[in-house]
């Protein structure tokens, strides 16, 4: 369900942005980190439903799901998503629908430990970002 | 572009944001913030003390999770106040976050909180002057309410916060001198002194001082702060009326 609130935020923000510049938006590239476990089809469905009667009416949403690179600030170990997947899977099992990283992926260090030293002091790019906006 | 930061700004743009802060921990910020929200019907309380999460405990909402709908995070409600807290996202567990995580949590909470027509939005700030303070500054033009105790230990920290706020062009709207005195049969005993330093600080920034007593009965209302009608609530209500 959070995909809808994210899509709403995106449409509202970009509609205002486009209005200020007097442009229409044709394409939006949204970059989301894979631990957010956002459902891309629901996100695009919500975007398409919410963009009507806005400056995004003719816009296409492309969602890039990126696998972050992680670095432990305690021991310096660098690792990829595959070394975090088991912990993410357990977390999803524990919270179910209320999986917290779905809403706030930046909470990841609270739940995930460095696979080498066990520290929570983990660095990664986890924000949801608009990478590109094409206008007309 | 970071859409959550933009939408958080937009959602708070036309509301009064009252940030209850201190720099110092343990001075009663969360109680003052909760009572401030309760003093104004239609208020929302956003708990930005990400690691402390006192607001749910004060209102008896610990362990309850926010529902997330199509329009964002549904509030937890008690005493007519809409409460938003990271505690309603993670449940009853610790939160440990580096600065970027705190920034993301603040921006997401403020972007997705379904505030409805809530006004004012009272923000319970954490101790310290870390990422949450910077993040709130990025998102909203807030009205600071400083909480101190008469202790000199409290004053030094609050003074630094006031200096920082002044540099940012913000003037505290009020100073709450909390745990200032004990009412003994009608006479006031000031066990920690009169807090002259904090009073001078408030005077120097033109902020009124609201002296709140130590009320041991307040402890009985942890978990049902919305039922508390004691003298601390009276002081905070007067403070809010003066904002």
Instruction: Name the shape of chain A in a single word.
Output: elongated
Number of beta strands of chain A: 6
Kindly report the average pLDDT value of chain B. Answer: 94
- Spatial extent as radius of gyration of chain B: 17 Å
Largest sheet of chain B: 9 strands, mixed
Morphology of chain B = globular
Number of domains of chain A: 1
The low-confidence parts of chain B are none
Number of helices of chain B: 9
The percent range for helix content of chain B is 25-40%
Largest beta sheet of chain A: what is the strand line-up?
2-1-6
Number of helices of chain A: 5
Which structural class is indicated by helix and strand composition of chain B? alpha/beta
Q: What's the average pLDDT of chain A?
A: 95
**Poorly predicted sequence stretches spanning 5 or more consecutive residues of chain A:** none
Q: State the major sheet of chain A.
A: 3 strands, mixed
Kindly report how far apart the N and C termini of chain A lie. 31 Å
What share of the residues of chain B does DSSP label as strand, in percent?
15-25%
Residues in helices of chain A, as a percent range: 25-40%
How would you name the oligomeric state of the polypeptide chains in this document?
A: heterodimer
